[in-house]
Amino acid sequence: MNANKFNISYAKALEYWSEIPPTVDGVLGGFGFISELDINGSKLFLESLLSSENAPGCSLALDCGAGIGRITKDLLIHHFEAVDVVEPDLKFINSIREFVGDGQLKIRRLYNVGLQEFIPENKYDIIWNQWVLGYLTDEDLVSYLIRCRDALAPSGVIVVKENVTSTGKTEKDETDSSITRSLKQFIKIFKSASLKRIKQCKQTNFPNGIYPIIKCRRITVCPGIPRFGQYNDRATTHKTLGTVRLNVGVPIVVMETTDQGD
């Protein structure tokens, strides 16, 4: 596995986000209008997860690459007793409690650190990753997922909501030094972290031309966000990768740890 074939730069990504305003439109790259659609799709997915056999608990969630806390505010605090937040941009971290408003009482801890350096200190029922894993090299992503795997409570899950390409190739965005992987590449990475898909869906109702997305459990991989500032027809797909939705084809996958010996 090539750790950094595309020359991902954590410093360049931080520099890019340091110039972005702490607003919904800012963190969604000018696509703030899709926030409600995104949350609704994630809500359906999460609720199906929480009502499933051997469902995760509802005590503690972790929101990774949280930005200003959009997912914490509109999704996680409504389903979990408490939420921890990880976000590398200090400006966003300082905006989270005010943005979340009354629900901030459920925010337990804020971690101002990049995911490549983050080491979970607790056991989580849900670890939610959305539109953030494209900033990690393959090597760092595998290591990060292993740390997340080891930080799961009994029946806990990891949710990954990410864009995927339909070309089967990785595509680089030089603006923010991020990449968009294919589903096949994600599956290879999950396998390297001893994670196995147990649910997969597609987000629906996003505007045409937005990159596809994926989701999962125990590790749960979820659909991703549109590439910032881009509508890219060649990247769209209508494949069903599991069980969530999105007109443009945003796959959502659920994963679990692989049994010893598999």
TrEMBL record:
Keywords: Methyltransferase, S-adenosyl-L-methionine, Transferase. GO terms for biological process: methylation. GO terms for cellular component: cytoplasm. Gene3D superfamilies: Vaccinia Virus protein VP39. It catalyses: N-terminal L-seryl-L-prolyl-L-lysyl-[protein] + 3 S-adenosyl-L-methionine = N-terminal N,N,N-trimethyl-L-seryl-L-prolyl-L-lysyl-[protein] + 3 S-adenosyl-L-homocysteine + 3 H(+); N-terminal L-prolyl-L-prolyl-L-lysyl-[protein] + 2 S-adenosyl-L-methionine = N-terminal N,N-dimethyl-L-prolyl-L-prolyl-L-lysyl-[protein] + 2 S-adenosyl-L-homocysteine + 2 H(+); N-terminal L-alanyl-L-prolyl-L-lysyl-[protein] + 3 S-adenosyl-L-methionine = N-terminal N,N,N-trimethyl-L-alanyl-L-prolyl-L-lysyl-[protein] + 3 S-adenosyl-L-homocysteine + 3 H(+). Its EC number is 2.1.1.244. It comes from the Eukaryota. InterPro entries: MeTrfase_NTM1, SAM-dependent_MTases_sf. SUPFAM superfamilies: S-adenosyl-L-methionine-dependent methyltransferases. GO terms for molecular function: N-terminal protein N-methyltransferase activity. PANTHER family: AD-003 - RELATED, ALPHA N-TERMINAL PROTEIN METHYLTRANSFERASE 1. Belongs to the methyltransferase superfamily. NTM1 family. This is Alpha N-terminal protein methyltransferase 1. It comes from Diatraea saccharalis (sugarcane borer).
